Amino acid sequence: MRKYFLNILIVITFASFEVVKAQTSGGNSPYSRYGWGKLTEEAQGFNKGMAGAGIAARGKEMLNYQNPASYSALDSITFLFDAGISLQNGHWSENGKSINALNSSLDYLQAGFRLRKHLGISIGVRPISIVAYDFYATKSMPDNDGFGVYTSTSSYSGEGGVRKIWLGLGWEPVKNLSVGINGGYIWGDYSHKTSITYSNANVHSLAREYKGSINTYDLNLGVQYTQELSKKDILTVGATFGLGHDINSRSTYINQKLTTTSVLGGDTMVARKAYQIPMRFGVGATLKHNDKWTFAADYTCQLWKDCKFPELVSTSSATTYSAEKNTFRNLHKIALGTEYIPNPEGLKLRHHVAYRAGVSYATSYVNVNNDGVVSSGPKSLIVSAGLGLPIVNMYNNRSMLNASVQWEHLIPGRSHSLKEDYLRLCIGLSFNANWFNKWKIE
To answer: What is the pLDDT of residue 406?
Structure first.
């Protein structure tokens, strides 16, 4: 029976691919014009209110794709389906000017159940990065070429992103020790367009486009170990490792000179084997006290510095478009979170409400070129708070509606650079169905 449920789930997940592609706009960040775009947060409904801390999180009614070892704890009688969306208001400010914009995103879809004792399975899909921006700048041009004084307009736009589908297993070979693996497929495309037009029709316009397509496998390993410290305190530690490797995908650069009616000329260059996925690792710990308090702490690192990415390189003799290293920086992130449940054994609904809070700080993986000056990309500070609300009806008393509010502040690498702030409402529904109960007829 479970095999058929899994087949149905795979079909549903594949059908959701275009939905994910259409709905993960995720924000109009100019910083998404660099690298793979703006990386998405790996947090889920149960830990978005805890700023994403979850490498050591596990539970019988929880799907935690951040560490596949957690699947071994899944309950034997339930089928879990988990989905998350975010609504956000973005605020951008620079040199005394500011603008706001509303966006929405589908954060993830996943499902899972226990195959057998101490062995759980999960399948899911989520975005990894988002490219979404559109802005322009104008300036007056002096009469240096005999065409008089005129205005130039530089336009920048980008769209696309990268997504991942995975199938994971978690196994507890010995008591308190669990291991797991997520095997996945990463795919997506992006396009960055730049154009310079002039108010004087006698001056030729310029247009450039950088576009690429990424298709590769992904492999993530996880381990968790649980130790009872006392009758009231349980410590779980966890670690994850993501395999880095070359990606056999190419990127294309198109350069054109234009008039108002035709293309005067240009060239096209192709960079082959243009990308690498970074090696990633993380460690975390959670401490549960009296089944009421949970304290979590994570550290993660993504080794982007030595990863290849297509770059346009100009020298005195030639201009080339090829895969280059040292265009990125290593990404480091620290997340701290806590959860409080008033009375896990209580009879009233309010006794089971989960109250959450957290904070995280992360460096950027990209370098930003601002008027020829290269600096680090913006650092991210997230402060969050949320609730986990049990859904109770005559058929189900184990599902959960998770709601959280996040404030994210992006700290630019240079003063007087673009600042970004996001106020984000995150909604997650964890549906826990008793599909595998054995019914008795009396």
So the answer is: 97
CB 364 within 8 A of CB 332: no
Single-letter amino acid code for the residue at 316: S
Largest CA distance in the chain: 97
| pLDDT on residue 260 | 67
Cα–Cα nearest to 40, from 131, 150, 174, 140: 131
| pLDDT at site 140 | 79
pTM: 0.89
**What Rg, from alpha-carbon coordinates, does the chain have?**
25
pLDDT in tens, 21-67: 444 444 578 889 899 999 999 999 999 999 999 999 999 888 999 99
**Which three-class secondary structure string do you get for the chain?**
CHHHHHHHHHHHHHHCHHHHHHHCCCCCCHHHHCCCCEECCCCCCCCHHHCCCCCCCCCCCCCCCCCHHHHHHCCCCCEEEEEEEEEEEEEEEECCEEEEEEEEEEEEEEEEEEEECCEEEEEEEEEEEEEEEEEEEEEEECCCCCCCCEEEEEEEEEEEEEEEEEEEEEEEEECCEEEEEEEEEEEEEEEEEEEEEECCCCCCEEEEEEEEEEEEEEEEEEEEEEEECCCCEEEEEEEEEECCEEECCCEEEEEEEECCCCEEEEEEEEECCCEEECEEEEEEEEEEECCCEEEEEEEEEEECCCCCEEEEEECCCCEEEEEECCCECCEEEEEEEEEECCCCCCCCHHHHCEEEEEEEEECCCEEEEECCEEEECCEEEEEEEEEEEEECCCCCCCEEEEEEEEEEEEECCCCCCCEEEEEEEEEEEEEEECCCCCCCCC
**Burial degree of 282 (CB within 10 A; 0-12, 13-18, 19+):** buried
Q: Which regions in the chain score pLDDT beneath 50?
A: 1, 4, 8, 12, 15, 18-26, 439-442
Q: Is 389 exposed, middle or buried (0-12, 13-18, 19+ CB in 10 A)?
A: middle
For the chain, domains (ranges, CATH) are 2-433 (2.40.160.60)
- Measured between its terminal Cα atoms, the distance across the chain in Å is 24
Residue whose tokens read 């899944």: 74
Q: What is the predicted pLDDT for the residue at 3? A: 53
CA distances for 79 relative to 2, 175, 353, 393, angstroms? 9, 23, 22, 17
Please state, in angstroms and rounded to a whole number, the distance separating the CA atoms of residues 102 and 94.
19
